[in-house]
Amino acid sequence: MSVEPLEIYLEEREVARGLRHDVRVGLTAHPKWLPPKWFYDARGSELFEEITRLPEYYPTRAERAVLAARADEIAATSGAKTLIELGSGSSEKTRLLLDAFARRGDLGTFVPLDVSVSALRQSTAEIAADYPALRVRGIVGDFTRQLDRLPTGGRRLVVFLGGTIGNLAPDERAGFLAAMRAALEPGDWLLIGTDLVKDPAVLVPAYDDEAGVTAEFNRNVLRVINRELGADFDPEAFRHVAIWDAEREWIEMRLRATRPMRVRVLDLVVDFAEGEELRTEISAKFRRAGIEAELGAAGFVTRHLWTDDDGLFAVTLAQA
Ligand code: AVJ
């Protein structure tokens, strides 16, 4: 097995500065907001793993079904020598692809990139142990920023699963896809998972589950800010809210203050009125035509767009 030391492109100092910046900008904005990337400390990553197993949260199962059905085709079509996974987390679904490449025997290197050092340490060790022929190079980084430093060497396949691209606002998404295209050579591949527009009666419970795991996940961002920045949020005084924005076709998660509150963080005094909401995540849902159009605008050609049998989730293979 060959697992190389993690390559750290994101220093802790830089992460801390990013958090302070986002808190300052978001908590002084009207309405208040925070970017979703701060959910994922060790506890937040665990809660997200728990979400993926909830009966209401269909995206993980639907995407896994597509990958299970299409992994061999993806491996054969791409003929990739290097597989790069953005926002890899546990890389659990990616194993379906690694298995398919292993059957062909031509993948040389797996490069998982994630902001979470703890998740990467675990996943790189496990994958290196299970795929002895593979060189595993974990990169600690932010997928919106480290695209110009992707490893080279043979045909590359970049995979971005889970529907995480939906966390970006439309203009950020366009910028991200353009940067992705610029980082690739003509002929390289992008495999991207996107959740699809569907009945809000299915969508909303996926983000507001019966067991309250998503609510805990949502409130976790306040715990992260308390711990990292010495803030005094009372997370229990915020109610989890998930709404479907039918016009913009995204789910929005918010935290609603159940009483008036004054929070101190950094040098800020942040007041919440009773009922005031803090936006913590958007999770955009897509349509076939929109996916192809956004990829096309960034210079990618869509070669395949597959969905699960229930048409819940799409996995698109596009070429630079
Ligand atoms: C990991 C970003 C794909 O948007 O569905 C799950 C995160 N948020 N439940 C998503 C999430 C609330 C998830 N992604």
TrEMBL record:
<dbReference type="GO" id="GO:0052706">
    <property type="term" value="F:L-histidine N(alpha)-methyltransferase activity"/>
</dbReference>
<feature type="binding site">
    <location>
        <begin position="142"/>
        <end position="143"/>
    </location>
    <ligand>
        <name>S-adenosyl-L-methionine</name>
    </ligand>
</feature>
<keyword id="KW-0808">Transferase</keyword>
<feature type="binding site">
    <location>
        <begin position="281"/>
        <end position="283"/>
    </location>
    <ligand>
        <name>L-histidine</name>
    </ligand>
</feature>
<dbReference type="GO" id="GO:0032259">
    <property type="term" value="P:methylation"/>
</dbReference>
<dbReference type="InterPro" id="IPR032888">
    <property type="entry name" value="EgtD_Actinobacteria"/>
</dbReference>
<feature type="binding site">
    <location>
        <position position="167"/>
    </location>
    <ligand>
        <name>L-histidine</name>
    </ligand>
</feature>
<feature type="binding site">
    <location>
        <position position="57"/>
    </location>
    <ligand>
        <name>L-histidine</name>
    </ligand>
</feature>
<dbReference type="Pfam" id="PF10017">
    <property type="entry name" value="Methyltransf_33"/>
</dbReference>
<feature type="binding site">
    <location>
        <position position="87"/>
    </location>
    <ligand>
        <name>S-adenosyl-L-methionine</name>
    </ligand>
</feature>
<feature type="binding site">
    <location>
        <position position="93"/>
    </location>
    <ligand>
        <name>S-adenosyl-L-methionine</name>
    </ligand>
</feature>
<feature type="binding site">
    <location>
        <position position="207"/>
    </location>
    <ligand>
        <name>L-histidine</name>
    </ligand>
</feature>
<dbReference type="InterPro" id="IPR051128">
    <property type="entry name" value="EgtD_Methyltrsf_superfamily"/>
</dbReference>
<feature type="domain" description="Histidine-specific methyltransferase SAM-dependent">
    <location>
        <begin position="20"/>
        <end position="319"/>
    </location>
</feature>
<comment type="subunit">
    <text>Monomer.</text>
</comment>
<dbReference type="InterPro" id="IPR017804">
    <property type="entry name" value="MeTrfase_EgtD-like"/>
</dbReference>
<comment type="pathway">
    <text>Amino-acid biosynthesis; ergothioneine biosynthesis.</text>
</comment>
<comment type="function">
    <text>Catalyzes the SAM-dependent triple methylation of the alpha-amino group of histidine to form hercynine, a step in the biosynthesis pathway of ergothioneine.</text>
</comment>
<keyword id="KW-0489">Methyltransferase</keyword>
<dbReference type="InterPro" id="IPR035094">
    <property type="entry name" value="EgtD"/>
</dbReference>
<dbReference type="InterPro" id="IPR029063">
    <property type="entry name" value="SAM-dependent_MTases_sf"/>
</dbReference>
<comment type="similarity">
    <text>Belongs to the methyltransferase superfamily. EgtD family.</text>
</comment>
<dbReference type="InterPro" id="IPR019257">
    <property type="entry name" value="MeTrfase_dom"/>
</dbReference>
<feature type="binding site">
    <location>
        <position position="114"/>
    </location>
    <ligand>
        <name>S-adenosyl-L-methionine</name>
    </ligand>
</feature>
<keyword id="KW-0949">S-adenosyl-L-methionine</keyword>
<protein>
    <recommendedName>
        <fullName>Histidine N-alpha-methyltransferase</fullName>
        <ecNumber>2.1.1.44</ecNumber>
    </recommendedName>
</protein>
